[in-house]
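Support case: user asked for a sample of complex input and structure output to validate their parser. Sending the pair below.
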Amino acid sequence: MKKVVLMLSIFSLSFAQENLQELRRQLEEQRKLIRELEKKIQTLEKAQTKREEDRAKPAPADRSIQLRARFEDRLKAYQVSPFKQTALLPDISFILDFSLVGRNRKDQEFHELVIPRLWHRHEEEHGHALLNDRRGFNLNYGELFLYAPVDPYFDLYATIPFSDHGAEVEEAYAVTRGLPGGFQIKVGKFRSSFGRLNPQHPHAWDFATQPLPNKVFLGDHGLVEKGVGINWLAPTPFYLLLGAEVLQGENDQSFGYRGFTIEDNNTHNTFSLEDKPVPNLYLGFVKTSFDLGNLTVLTGFSYAQGKHRHAHGDHGLDAKTRLYGFDLTARYHIDSFRYLALQGEYMFRDQDGTRYGFNNAGALVTRPVERKQAGFYAQLVGRFHKQWKAGIRYELINKNSVRVGGNRVATPSNLPAYYAMLEYSPTEFSRIRLQVGENRAFYEAHGGRFERKPVKEVILQFNFAIGAHGAHPF
Amino acid sequence: MLKLSALLFFLFSLSFAQLRVVATYPWIGEIVREVGKERVSLYVIAKPTEDFHFVVPKPSHIARLRNADLLVINGASLEVGFIPPLLQQSNNPKIQPGREGFLDLSQFMELIEKQENVSREMGDVHPEGNPHFHLDPHNIPVLARAIGDRMCQLDQKNCPYYRSNLEDFLRRWNTKLKDWDAGFSRLKGLRVMQYHKTYNYLFKRYGIETAGTIEPLPGIPPTAKHLERLKREVGDRGVKFVVLEGFRRGERSAEGLAQTLKVRVLVLPQDVGVEGAKDLFTLFDEILRRLSQ
């Protein structure tokens, strides 16, 4: 019995042991299962939170969506401005010329002065003020400049100065860009190529004022005319340019085609002349240039011929004008910036015609007129630093011979002016210039007698340019 | 009489036999000469002693442009101060922009320092990017090919001749390129001051650093204030040279700055014809030799 009990207990013990192991195994399995489940729950939870986060975030960076969005944007843009041509905008620039003027004559007195038998002040035109006309601050001009090729065959340039009073089309012309054989044709309204200074815009001048010969023979605004010009560049190894212009001839000083009516102050008798046939002004020039080492010489000869009708008060002039011009520029370049330049121009005007006036009884009197007048300027300008320039200029009307009815009229014939200037240009686009000088060509008119009234001037000139403005030629 | 007119005709046709090329800068002229040799007649507008931004538009250049078959320019607005008025007065339709006879080399280059927005208050910046790309020797073969292709287009009869000259030039160039790559690579990390950002293409390729420019802004001459700031900020940061282009030799602001920084002014050729650069090869040889001192 004891044996049986022992056996049983051993058996049961071993069985129990076996059972225990089984239980442990099961427990282990369940633990594993739980761990797996936990893991699953965790990943699910993670996925859940991620999904929530994602929902909070913007849409994923999907390339196709981006492309579609961009495409839609473009679609919209095209719908708004499908024929936008901003890429074809012309070069636009704006140039301001502003000055502060000090003068020893009051404005009223200054405006009544004349240059005997050569110049008197004309009524101010709209859009184009006379430069440095008044004491104090002057808005000389604010100039809009446009340029673009029209098509493969033409370039177009326009210069539109604005003043206090309005605007004016000073220049608007087209130039050919594809003519063979070295030819170029220009049509429209433009500054004539007569001489050296006249074709240049005032902001490219070395001084704030125009020299006397240009002022008296070509006018305060220069020879700017409607017409057509042609030039031919010769196929020579040096620069040789020949040109001709056919112009309307509307110049106040030398080439006016318009007729006039004069009226006698006492009897109110009148006399009228019709307009001259147009075109009225024919012009030719030749320019040449060569280099001698660092010295560049540019010289030219110009000739203009046309009829001139002009009335002033109770008398008028009907004449034929021949104008001759000779110019010479010699510029010695020390380096890219520094140079010394000598520039001069001589002009001679030969006029033949008839003077119309009234005698004391109010009857018309016609007398032959012959005027031979000439003058020159010479200037020396040094650019001694990239930003600094200084210069002096001497101007002189040295011939002023007027014959009316074969008799010489007493006229002052030694009319000088001289100026000095110093300018500072922070960049090519801004410039401050101080100019001082005296003009001894101005007179006060007392009937037929003249009294000299020298005009002393100090001009502080400011020039600013913005936008796309092309470089200037030599 | 017949003999004379025949002679005249001969001279006339002789002068027309050559391709007449005008280049704005001497280095462009060198490439044209390498490709065309005696079969082109070449005229170069700018002198190497001139500041490349400020070339004077002399009328004598107009006379040469009038008869040209091809005008090759650097482009990227570098010539904006003189080429437009010269072209306008040249009365030559063949070389107007948009025609076959007008070649703008900047079109073949990937320009660096391109500005998104430009304003003149930033000085004389070029909206297209830095235009001085010719000072990276790796750009020269691309430019030479562009020039060779255009010469071929204009003068098909001589095309095989141009092609073989071009290939010969490129072969010699590529050999030299290995020397330059080795030489310039040794300068990696060198720090210099420049007057203007002239050498940026070269320095960028070979890891030479520019610590500052003497100009406060491109094209604006140095001011006392800017130089003071340069001395303060760059003073002790291991600058070895103040680099000047050949045409600026003797520039006082650079001398003064170099003195305070206790470094040397180093004048480098910027084009063929100055500072010992006899041709395109010696241009880079000389730059390397001087920088390696």
